[in-house]
Every structure is written in C-alpha cells, then in structure tokens.
Amino acid sequence: MEPLEIVDRIKDKFFSEVVDVKEFRDQVSVSVKREKLLEICRYLHDDPDIHMDYLADLLGVDYPDNKFRFEVVYNLFSMKYEHRILIKALLPEDDPVVESVVSVWNGANWHEREACDMYGIVFNNHPDLRRILMPEDWEGYPLRKDYPLKGPEREYKGFEEVKELHTHDDEWMITD
C-alpha cells in the first residue's frame, strides 16, 4: 500500500482529526490533533492491511513561532508490507501533553522519556516518565529553542554528589 493510500484510510476513519498532509521526497507525513492520537496509532498498528508494527523513531520538535509550538513525530514502518508513514501530533506551548503510545509499541518507552526530558512534553499514562538523560534535579529542557545557550556560570544542584562518586576513578583505571 502506498503512503497516500494509508492517508486516505486515516481520513476515512478520523477525518476531523487530520490537520495537514505533506509529501516530500517520497515521504508522507500526517499532522493530527492530539486528542485521538492513541486511537489513530492503534488503528495503524492493528489494521491487517496497514500493519504498522514497528515504531522506527519518536521525537519531539520545537517550533516557537508556530500556533502549535511542539510536535511529536512518530516514524512508523510495516515490516510485513515495507511501507512507512510519519504521524505528527500537534501540541500547544501552554499544554504540551499527549497520550503515551507505549501500549501500542513498547519501544516508545524510552523515546517518550527523552522527549519529556529534552522538551518538557508530557505523555499521559506513560509507565515511568522519569528523566532519562538529565539529572532529576535539572532545571529546564535543553532542546527547546528558548533554552539559554549561555548564562551565569553555575553548576547544577547535584554536581557535588556526582563529583564525589567519581573521586576514585583514577584508582579504577585499567591500563595496558
């Protein structure tokens, strides 16, 4: 099935949820409202003719000047039929929240944690939405476009604890 045929299927079932469809270099993306994202993803996974059984990637994107500042992009692939499509959930700046798709693709777990950690996007019903890259006490979201590149020189709150953990690094050094 061609990607635009999949788009037609999505439109047939979720017409009011589709905001935009773009085709670029043989890649099709469908921007959808976030309210039915989980249902759309479950449909794409469970429909035997589409069978998007592999979540190749999930990532956050920040467009500070757009009406919907954040997007969560789901790169979906069918191993059985070898077709691909991108689904983009649109999120406003003042409420960057969407349903977790871990119940559809378990591999979304760490990807959603990363998007939460780096962009502050919250995934409702995620089984364990702790920070994954930054320390728990880190302030801010480093991949947001408004995150300061420079600022007052300061160390994060947990620096001394981490520094203490590494006091014996020289003793454990393995040399040939």
Write a concise synopsis of the structure shown:
With 176 residues, the chain is α/β, with parallel strands linked by helices. The chain has 4 helices and 7 strands. The model has no long low-confidence stretch (mean pLDDT 92).
Q: Can you give a write-up of this model?
A:
This protein is α/β, with parallel strands linked by helices. The chain has a single domain (3-165), classed as Beta Polymerase, domain 2 (2-Layer Sandwich), CATH 3.30.460.80. Helix content is 23%, strand content 26%. The chain has four helices and seven strands. Strands 1-2-5-4-3 form a five-stranded mixed sheet, with helices on one face. It has a two-stranded parallel sheet with strand order 6-7. Strand 3 and strand 4 form a beta hairpin. The longest helix is centred in the N-terminal third of the chain and has 12 residues, at 3-14. It is elongated.
